[in-house]
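Project standup — Tuesday

K.O.: blocked on the structure for the chain from last sprint. Re-posting the sequence here as requested.
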Amino acid sequence: SLYAPSAVVISKTQGASADAPAQRAVTLRCLPVGGDHPAPEKACAALREAGGDPAALPRYVEDTGRVCTREYRPVTVSVQGVWDGRRIDHAQTFSNSCELEKQTASVYAF
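H.V.: unblocked you, prediction finished:
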């Protein structure tokens, strides 16, 4: 096959809109695991556990005890591509980067 069954582009944008220019973006390929994501095995495992649904990621994260400030500096993440042959086009905004990291673990850690 020309295309991996699960390959996505994950991006981060400062602000509350996924339409703003991305500050960072990485590729993540699963089966075979690869891309330029810094922890592709962990990110693929988290997405697999969430059934390929990025919106379901927060419920799978363990409580690390990390405390975040209440500052509002929104960060928007987006995931676009294909997961198990299904098209993914997801965007989600977090109140700040600490909340993003606390709630989503390895997928957006880049």
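K.O.: great, moving the ticket to review. DSSP finds two helices and four strands in the chain. The mean pLDDT is 87.
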